[in-house]
Amino acid sequence: MGFRLSGVVQAKKLLRRSLSGSRQESSANVPKGFFPVYVGEFKKRFVVPVSYLNQPAFQELLIQAEEEYGFDHPNGGLTIPCSEDEFNQLTAQLH
């Protein structure tokens, strides 16, 4: 149980760091309990529930995002390093 909790805490810290420098329009029109991410070659914007931060598969994407882009990505917001199809498959499983 403690291991899972530490993963959630790490994911929330990563998200907070990534979004702290993001553009203001990236948070416009995002309902409470959700956050925007950018995915794929053309950086398509998705709005996903914060509850995904509890999911190990999504946490792995956050770790990959940190390794590839760091916390200061020029796009602003959180960019996920996978294709749109892969992201859609993952979110369908999480939903």
From TrEMBL:
<comment type="similarity">
    <text>Belongs to the ARG7 family.</text>
</comment>
<dbReference type="InterPro" id="IPR003676">
    <property type="entry name" value="SAUR_fam"/>
</dbReference>
<protein>
    <recommendedName>
        <fullName>Small auxin up regulated protein</fullName>
    </recommendedName>
</protein>
<dbReference type="Pfam" id="PF02519">
    <property type="entry name" value="Auxin_inducible"/>
</dbReference>
<dbReference type="GO" id="GO:0009733">
    <property type="term" value="P:response to auxin"/>
</dbReference>
